[in-house]
Known about the structure:
This protein has a 5-stranded parallel beta sheet, with helices on both faces. It has a 4-stranded antiparallel beta sheet with strand order 6-7-8-9, with helices on one face. It has helices at residues 4-8, 27-39, 50-59, 76-85, 101-109, 122-134, 169-179, 188-194, 206-218, and strands spanning 19-23, 43-47, 64-68, 92-96, 114-117, 143-146, 149-152, 157-160, 163-165, 227-230, 234-237. Helix 3 packs parallel to helix 4 (76-85) and helix 7 (169-179) packs across helix 9 (206-218). The longest helix has 13 residues, at 27-39. 38% of the residues lie in helices and 20% in strands. Helix 2 links the parallel strand 1 and strand 2. By secondary structure, it is an alpha/beta fold. It has 2 domains: 4-134, Response regulator (Rossmann fold, 3-Layer(aba) Sandwich); 143-237, Arc Repressor Mutant, subunit A, CATH 1.10.10. The chain contains 9 helices and 11 strands.
Amino acid sequence: MGTPQTEAMGLSRGARQARVLLVEDDRELAEEIQNDLTLRGYSVRHAATGPEGLAEASRHSFELLIIDRMLPELDGLSIIETLRSEGVTTPVLVLSALDAVDDRVRGLKAGGDDYLCKPFAFAELAARAEALLRRPQQGRETILKVGPLKLDLITREAWRGERAIELLPTEFKILAYLMRRAGTVVTRDMMLEDVWHYRFLPQTNVVDVHIGKLRRKIDAPDEEPMLLSIRGAGFMLRDPG
């Protein structure tokens, strides 16, 4: 069995120097993975909690995400689902001590690209990482369209017709969420759970405040309204055509 140094010689140029985010709360295991991948030519950043991992993945560009399923504060599958809803298409390798078929299926349905059960050999983790880096990035939705409204999930740009719309990060998340549910009513509780990830729903007007700001951006005074308030129910994004 070769050492990480000698095995790294066989890695493809595309895999070497790739930026990797490792989200793992077991610090000893995280250090071993980080050291091993670094010796193999990867640039690895480590996050020890779910919220920290989500923030890193949302703010910075990586070629690969390695995410533990069971994390404090925010679990790995919730991180992946959130990133996919934000348009992040980076390949994800899920690490988990849960090895039942149903658990693997949940990991893949959440948006994971591969699932590796603990304990594992570092050589297998490296091989799976390289395979994901070689995989063409295709098949994931990158442009959302509802009538004249278009949202690019990669460049994070938005337009209504020819008019560009400047969106803040939370406004971008809300709009992507509504566009994926266009023509259906979305409740405040749904948005608090799915966009803000509240586990216990507070009494707050944060949804209404952000919807108000977003509406002023996507519905100009001379344009047919697209973002509607449904009395007693919630909100709906509709195609004005």
